[in-house]
Specification:
It contains 9 helices and 12 strands. It has 2 domains: about 220 residues, Alpha-Beta Complex (Spore Coat Polysaccharide Biosynthesis Protein SpsA, Chain A), CATH 3.90.550.10; about 70 residues. The chain has about 325 residues and is of the alpha/beta class.
């Protein structure tokens, strides 16, 4: 088997059928052997029936697996272990793909110098950013899983997003599985298992390719185009960064387990938020405040296990993990 497409799903049978149908329409050379592995992460809706129906329409192309351990990372890891392909392509249950998507995404991996590839993720045609959201920041649309570095193919120096990426299966043997402590699960929007894995490979000296012609269209439901959702997303993004990568190495002094520079950054961003007049700029600063607040909370929790009833002793100490770092 040359390629396995991995799609993990949880209680999204309404969008799942559309996603699977678009993947089924993928056009690849006849010489390429490929499969689609759908992992049902303990769904309670009609997910299984939807998958079984498309399996009957495309015999030998789709496979169904059930993963009872709740959490996307568990489902992803089960899929990686079960996949038959040498190349693993990842896609989500709330997207549609162009017919050439899989061929374009996997083509770069024919060159052995590339360990992974990321494609272009665009919003569905009907999506329009709200007036109060500034899109000047490169990652302003990241909460909607939009990944668009432009129309030119080039080496990718950052991790791709999980709904449009592919890796050689051997990279999982070499670098390990997706982390289960940062993947989304019911009741928690902490995510980042995809970008943490990509960062792990980049840190190991692996190289990625950006292929803009491999296009996925991501659904952006109205429930996500809300200030509350974006604030929670950036707060959890801050928490995820600390879980994934630990206390920043530039942090030389800490108080209560939190790098001093994060308190200073929070103060500066908070002031910018308070004095900003233009609505989108004001909200942009507010999002930054929430992101830093999430990092502060996770640093605190990382240093002191409050959940077990311990009372942290608030004290100053020096972070000796990087003796050559600059001042806080």
């Amino acid at each position: 088997m040359d390629i396995t497409v991995i799609l993990c799903t949880f209680n999204r049978c309404a969008t799942l059928a559309k996603a699977l149908s678009s993947v089924a329409a993928s056009a690849l050379p006849e010489s390429v052997q490929w499969e689609v592995l759908v992992v049902d992460n303990n769904s309670t809706d009609r997910t299984r029936a939807v998958v079984e129906e498309i399996c009957s329409r495309h015999p030998g192309r789709f496979r169904y697996l059930f993963e009872a351990r709740q959490g996307k990372s568990y489902a992803l890891n089960t899929a990686v272990q079960t996949a038959l392909g040498d190349l693993l392509a990842f896609v989500d249950d709330d997207v549609t793909v162009e017919p050439t998507w899989l061929h374009k995404l996997s083509a770069a991996l024919q060159d052995s110098k590339w360990a992974g590839v990321g494609g272009r993720i665009l919003p569905e045609e009907a999506f329009s950013p709200p007036h109060w959201l500034s899109i000047k920041n490169r990652y302003a649309l990241a909460p909607f899983a939009i990944f668009d570095l432009g129309p030119e193919a080039a080496e990718l120096t950052e991790p791709p997003f999980g709904t449009n990426m592919a890796f050689r299966k051997e990279t999982f043997v070499k670098y390990g599985d997706f982390r289960t402590d940062i993947g989304p699960c019911p009741g928690s929007e902490i995510r980042g298992e995809d970008t943490e894995f990509g960062s792990r490979l980049l840190s190991g000296g692996e190289r990625f390719w950006y292929e803009p012609s491999a296009i996925v269209y991501h659904s952006v439901p109205e429930s996500r185009v809300q200030k509350k959702y974006l604030l929670e997303w950036w707060f959890d993004k801050g928490r995820s960064e600390i879980r994934a990568f630990g206390i920043p190495p530039e942090a030389r002094w800490l108080v209560g387990g939190v790098p001093l520079f994060l308190f200073r950054r929070l103060s500066v961003l908070g002031l910018r938020w308070l004095v900003a007049v233009e609505p989108s700029r004001r909200f942009s600063h507010r999002l930054s405040v929430w992101g830093v607040a999430g990092r502060i909370l996770e640093c605190y929790r990382r240093s002191y296990n409050v959940s077990q009833g311990g009372r942290p002793k608030i004290s100053w100490y020096r972070n000796r993990s990087d003796e050559t770092s600059g001042s806080a």
